[in-house]
Amino acid sequence: MDANIVLLPGDGIGPEIVTQGQRVLEAIASRFGHNFVMSEHPIGGNAIDDFGDPLPQATIDACKASDAILLGAVGGPKWDDPAAKTRPEAGLLKIRQELQLFANLRPIQTWDELVDASPLKTEIVAGTDILFFRELTGGVYFGDSGRREHSSGEEAYCEMVYSTGEIERIVRLAAEAARGRQGRVTSVDKANVLEVSRLWRQVAERVMKEEYPDVEYDVVLVDAMAMHLIARPKTFDVVVTGNLFGDILTDAASMLPGSLGLLPSASLGSDGPGLYEPIHGSAPDIAGRGIANPLATFLAAAMLLRHSLKLNEEASVIEAAVAATLKAGHRTADIASGGSSISTSEMGDLVVAQISG
Ligand code: IPM
Ligand code: MN
Questions:
Q1: How sure is the predictor about 83, in pLDDT bands with cuts at 50, 70 and 90?
Q2: Whether residue 275 is found in the same domain as residue 302
Q3: Which atom of ligand 1 approaches the CA of 243 most closely?
Q4: What beta strand segments (E) does 171-299 contain?
Q5: What is the C-alpha to C-alpha distance for residues 62 and 7, in angstroms, rounded to an integer?
Q6: Which of 41, 144, 217, 354 is the most exposed place for a label (fewest CB within 10 A)?
Q7: Which of 277, 253, 255, 257 lies closest to 265, judged by CA?
Q8: What percent of the chain has pLDDT above 70?
Q9: Distance 99 CA to ligand 1 centre (A)
Q10: Are 273 and 347 part of one and the same domain?
């Protein structure tokens, strides 16, 4: 297969982990006889420095012309000034919107090898396997916002908006995924307070009843969900929710497996390239030291192969290589729990060696 893959290393540890991700994709290409053409483009803080724009048009064009995109991370203290004209995060929001990546898949799985790394008790987290579908191009992230005068000074507002069509398409994707898993969908909203959530609930219920009667369906309020995720994470299969609730709940859920360094995500539209990234950030505190954990990026590369290139066997080979490397006891500092640790590139070497056989 010929595929055109855009690499967006970004800021902080992004370049270090994407370099290793590229090696893993190259190892897959040579083992399976594929031709992956990979090119790097700027996004985030470094793009602000070099081009005055966190998402230069050339990056957008390259992404649109690609088959899939592998992103590192954006942001850092250097660009955190609240008075700044633009921020690295704006680049991320814009690429989601430009490519209409409305579905953000965030799988939360615990690894038996690392269950001790979880801040929660083993009997609560072991065996957790949740797939979140976070709506990514709507809701309060993209509603009208601004400031206006107020008797006390000023007031600020952000509108949370969802349409029937936006709700239907994300719920359908979640339900389809549930059919290939345990057949259960939980929709999370705040329908006791928010009108947007009442529409969300109505539409989700109709889609599930009419189109997916074979899939079990329930609803949970977002505040209760925060509690259930910690108390009984094993009881969830597929969870679907809006942009802001999904942002918060998936960060909470990311602690279940113990390390942010192992969690990949995929952002997909109805056609066109998908964007794949580790869910951790740019970790400016450890950037440049060669100690970042590249495993989430490898697992993101596996999702890229599976979802955008339909290369299921190749994706499984990466996942198995990561599992085998962990099983053999190799750890980067973030998951070493005080034991000895290896560097980002050593982890890359080990996984590449597993893939190459
Ligand atoms: C995420 C991040 C982003 C978000 C930020 C960096 C814009 O937190 O991908 O979850 O809020 O969506
Ligand atoms: Mn987030």
A1: confident
A2: yes
A3: 12
A4: 184-189, 216-221, 238-241, 264-268, 274-278
A5: 10
A6: 144
A7: 277
A8: 100
A9: 16
A10: yes
Task: Write down which residue in 212, 235, 255 finishes a domain.
Answer: 255
Specify whether the CB–CB gap between 109 and 129 falls below 8 A: yes
Ligand 1 environment, Cβ below 6 A: 89, 92-93, 247
303-320 pLDDT, tens digit per residue, is: 999 999 999 999 999 999
**Calpha distance 64→95 (Å, rounded):** 10
Q: Compute the distance from residue 89 Cα to the ligand 1 centre, in Å.
A: 7
CATH number for the domain spanning 324: value is: 3.40.718.10
Both 209 and 236 in one domain: the answer is yes
Q: Domain check: are 53 and 66 in the same one?
A: yes
At 184-243, the pLDDT tens digits run 999 999 999 999 999 999 999 999 999 999 999 999 999 999 999 999 999 999 999 999
Q: Where does the chain show beta strands of DSSP type E? A: 2-10, 35-40, 68-73, 103-109, 129-135, 145-150, 153-158, 184-189, 216-221, 238-241, 264-268, 274-278
Residue 124 domain flag: no
The answer on 228 and 142 residing in a single domain is yes
121 part of a folded domain: no
In this structure, are residues 162 and 139 in contact, taking their beta carbons and an 8 Å threshold?
A: yes
Which ligand 1 atom lies nearest to the CA of residue 247?
A: 10
The span from the CA of 60 to the CA of 90, in Å, is 13
Residue with tokens 């995720």: 229
Last residue of one domain, picked from the residues 205, 231, 255: 255
- Ligand 2 centre from 244 Cα, in Å? 9
Q: Which 8-state DSSP code applies to residue 275?
A: E
Do 240 and 291 lie in a common domain?
Answer: no
